[in-house]
Design goal:
By secondary structure, the protein is an alpha/beta fold. The protein has 11 helices and 11 strands. The two termini are about 25 Å apart.
């Protein structure tokens, strides 16, 4: 029997490397891996053109489409991208922002109001720090260049939000440095936090802030999941388990390689000390797949989407993913 050919678009992450190289092969499947280190490009091509049978996809976009009841994809509980986001909130030092609550009523730039990173940051600010974001004026555009952040097709907001599209001819990073924005938050740190003396992090010791957040909540924010075109899955429902198993094996190989002390694989000078700290904090696996291991995180994301009126009502996280057990 000929293996099923499946195209798969994803970033060339270390946890995907064994799949990309063919070191791990899903049983019965010939995976044609297309490495694209530009998540927004993958999302736009998948959502708007259905270009791939399977792809890395924005968690918030998938959940929002599912909440509308007309999602053209199904999802595996595989999470190529996770990221704590305290370090992705940057401020102009002259904007009078001394604490998170000072963000209230400010002019804040973000790549996309609906992007998963922005959802997590707003949710964390509101829930953890009591920040009132209702009076914020949002400027939406690319952080690193003038213009838009991709060409997203997202469900309409369920409540009015004060959002302006950036048509200034400047990047959000430059607008922040020039004092035309009070803060920027989202999926990228603005370059100006390094290049401009007028820009700083809201949380200067964001690493400690993120560690405290995880210790308190057990939440490691999920950014992306793996989506399969619904018609391809329904034609071959057997693919879920071998795909999931292969993703898990690939991740396990990456963890093992990262920890090999004979020759350091990753250019982090304090890698082995970092790995000890990560092991102590996360209990052995800092990047688990599956619904149960990520239940707190997934339920928090769904709650933030409801609170921010990106979906009308809560969804059971078990219903969002294929059964891979």
């Amino acid at each position: 029997m000929t293996d099923l050919k499946m195209t798969f678009a994803c970033g060339d992450y270390d946890r995907m490397e064994a799949l990309m190289r063919g070191e791990i092969v899903p049983e019965g499947i010939e995976l044609q891996f297309e490495a694209i280190q530009a998540p927004r490009e993958i999302f736009d091509r998948m959502v708007q053109k259905r270009e791939f049978m399977m792809a890395e996809l924005s968690s918030s976009e998938f959940i929002s489409m599912t909440g509308q009841g007309d999602c053209p994809f199904v999802a595996l509980p595989v999470f190529p991208s996770k990221a704590f986001r305290h370090g992705f909130i940057c401020i102009n030092k002259n904007a009078g922002i001394k604490s998170p609550k000072d963000l209230a009523g400010k002019r804040i730039g973000t790549p996309l109001y609906t992007q998963t990173a922005a959802v997590w940051i707003r949710g964390m600010l509101e829930t953890d720090y009591g920040v009132d974001l209702s009076g914020v004026h949002w400027l939406q555009g690319a952080i690193e260049k003038p213009g838009s952040h991709g060409n997203a097709k997202v469900p309409p907001l369920l409540k009015p939000v004060d959002i302006e599209i950036n048509e200034t001819g400047k990047s959000l990073s430059d607008l922040l440095a020039d004092g035309e924005l009070d803060a920027v938050l989202g999926s990228r740190m603005p370059d100006s936090v390094v290049t401009s003396g007028d820009v700083d992090w809201l949380f200067p010791d964001f690493r400690q802030e993120e560690k405290d957040y995880y210790a308190r909540t057990g939440i490691h924010p999920i950014m992306h999941l793996v989506a399969i075109r619904r018609e391809d899955y329904e034609a071959n429902p057997w693919i879920a388990k071998p795909l999931y198993d292969a993703f898990c094996k690939s991740k396990d190989i990456a963890l093992k390689k990262m920890g090999f002390s004979g020759a350091q694989k990753i250019m982090l000078p304090f890698l082995y000390g970092d790995l000890v700290e990560v092991d102590q904090l996360f209990g052995g696996d800092p990047w688990p797949y599956g619904v149960e291991a990520n239940r707190k995180t997934l339920e928090a994301l769904v709650a933030h989407l409801v609170e921010q009126r990106l979906i009308a009502e809560s969804l059971d996280v078990d219903d969002l993913f294929l059964d891979v057990t």
